[in-house]
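Q: What does the assembled structure look like for these inputs?
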Amino acid sequence: MNIYDISKLAGVSTATVSRVINGFDNVKPATRNKVLSVMASQGYTPNAFARGLGLNTMKSIGIMCADSSDMYLAKAVYFIERDLREAGYHCILTCTGYNRDSQRQALSSLMSQHVDCIILVGSTFIDKDNKNNKYIYDASSTVPIMMLNAALEHKGIYCVLCDDYTATQTATLDLIDSGRRDILYLFNSYSYSAEKKSSGYRSAFELRNMTCDERYLQFFNGSSQDIEGVCSFVNNLHEKGLNFDAVLASDDFLAVGALKYAIRKGIRVPAELSVIGYNNSILTNCSEPELSSIDNHLELLCQNLVKICIGTLSGESMPQKTVFGGELVHKKTTLRIEKE
Amino acid sequence: MNIYDISKLAGVSTATVSRVINGFDNVKPATRNKVLSVMASQGYTPNAFARGLGLNTMKSIGIMCADSSDMYLAKAVYFIERDLREAGYHCILTCTGYNRDSQRQALSSLMSQHVDCIILVGSTFIDKDNKNNKYIYDASSTVPIMMLNAALEHKGIYCVLCDDYTATQTATLDLIDSGRRDILYLFNSYSYSAEKKSSGYRSAFELRNMTCDERYLQFFNGSSQDIEGVCSFVNNLHEKGLNFDAVLASDDFLAVGALKYAIRKGIRVPAELSVIGYNNSILTNCSEPELSSIDNHLELLCQNLVKICIGTLSGESMPQKTVFGGELVHKKTTLRIEKE
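A:
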């Protein structure tokens, strides 16, 4: 069944059928209805749109991300879109911001577009206390939900994440074992993965029978663009009497700000101060010396997420939770531990 | 006309109509065809998909960008998606890579999805010699094409860009007028906007009755992630006997690499060497001292592009070419010129 068959059955030219399909105005209502009726009765699917009309799927995937200009999230969207496109899907991207109401609305808008699956990029879409996650549970009864770097246990929800807890614990242990005692922990979010990181930091002290001093966990309440602000923030902590010989940060930009503080103060890195970031982004290569950072293997996570997404849509049974380990990448702001 | 009316006319339950609309399998073919015929004859549009079937538009916009993990392009996509979403459009994002065949294929794939408009983000989609641009001209006869940071003169093509030529000229003049004579120009692309920048660099020497030494235009053939590579590249130029007292770069990452070279060599910035980047991205704030850079007002460009897009789709007459000026933002790697 092609456009030629439809034109014969409807008794009009193929040009007219094409005009109807393409939604041009220059077709009489009666003719338009005749063509549409023939198309409907023959189950004819002229294009991707028509397939959405109850006959097949659009092969479209909704991607939600809080802020696609965030370097980390942008990379995730890039990897996910690339692999989905290769598999023949197209992606509808929605940037939701960090407000829960906007996120809820974005999800429902994607649902109304009848996407095959919705991918939540980043951990800002869920609440730790599980109070406001119903909108995701509800959606998962209609379409599969894939989550990157967050986890909810529920039918229809598939999660791929880095073990941020262990990665942060490992980095903290590395600092402790290299002789650091006063490790400032900088963070800028209370999201799902941010909480895992803080817990990992705390757990390291326990493992070494040390006490974690809560004054050393410091929340930076500013934009990820504001590296100068981080620098002042760290300087201020120092001036208020907080002494530290290491900085561990939940994001590279925080670590870059701390390193900037050290350079300006003439503090030798890593001899006097160790600094470790998170994400191993390009920011770590901009600073001099280059920043050690935790790599959470974003590309690997995204590739796996897409595999699970496609498998699920093909009716295969896929794992609901997939966890990868992170890796501390030593560059030039950490001391190497002498192996015995 | 609603789902209830359709169910009465087709003599089936609303649940059945709903099943047909949602593409569930548990409907007899004869019943399905009856419902589809009634829907077609009544011009009933149950949802966004159905509106695509020649009755209305999907209110969807295709966005093409070579690489959404590129920081600059990612920001552009973010601004464009944000403003389009506010105007009630959803965005289908396609990352094409830099290969022309893939770009051509991506464009045709978006066309087959019947998007209302296609936005080309970045200047890698067109050839300077206008030889391989036919695929864009062809598309523009079906849907409006919006171009960010590139320009083609053709009916149906709308361009919003920064005057990279004048911005680069201004920065070069600033360096010359602050006493610099040997200005290394680093670039990493031969795209439309890259060519404008190179020409702007050359033109500054002419304006000051100086000769532009072509050895000072140096192409870095590497990834934008490879800041260490840029550092070696610049060091290598120096070792081969090229002397320079300023570096102007077509992208911030190149300038960061050059600055890294200076810091390692103990060259004082800006006393002995001035450095200027392009894009005024977060990379300029990571380095110490912070990089001076050309800001091409990306958010403003994107806001205007979306306005023109929406205006065009509403049938308004919109400008086909909109050009904004760039701005040299002095931070800590340039000398201030004494005003007389």
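The longest helix of chain A spans residues 71-86.
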